[in-house]
Amino acid sequence: MKAVLFDLDDTLFDHTTSAANAVRSWVPTVGATFTEDLIDRWFEIERVNFDGWLAGRLTHQGQRRGRLLEFLPLLGVPVPSTDAELDEVFAGYLEHYRLRWAAFPDARPALEVARGNGWRIGVLTNGSTAQQNAKLAAIGLADLVDVVSTSEGLGVSKPAAEAYNLTCEALGVEPADTLMIGDNFELDVLGARAAGLTAEHLDRTAGIGLAQLVRRTS
To answer: Which residues form the signal peptide (predicted)?
Structure first.
């Protein structure tokens, strides 16, 4: 191996915990009562609208507005009538989300193992360029990453082969010499393997951490 690509959300960056805690603290600020069932609904709505953005049916800001259009009625909160008002409400959620950004404890050790192997390090993420780079900086990992590729910047998203191949090209390595690690089996494993990379599935429920996955492929 000469390089490793990491997914970002729920691989290096604990998106699920960060977002869930943000919803818990944000919901009361819009005049609603928080209940735990709202967490599942938030993520269901997020997934559908985010996939709409990846498919080109929505703009990035449009998928944020779409999430509020579905979620606010669940709270019994009046839905703003203009995009500007929707954006203002979503900015409130984002403030709570950013305050809770955190890396998984094993994220930096995994990157350090990869760096110790002499590997180039990339992050390949289906997300917006500005936000994903901001996450890496905020959680203290940006200094160990050589290339950050986003679906927004590439113009293509995982699991399209071009996403992996273009990232390998940016790192100066061949797909056959590259390992991909991520939590999403379809996007980070099957897609990567179809593009000619080696891939490992990060399943935290199995008790295997990022650093272990890097070491066993070294």
So the answer is: none
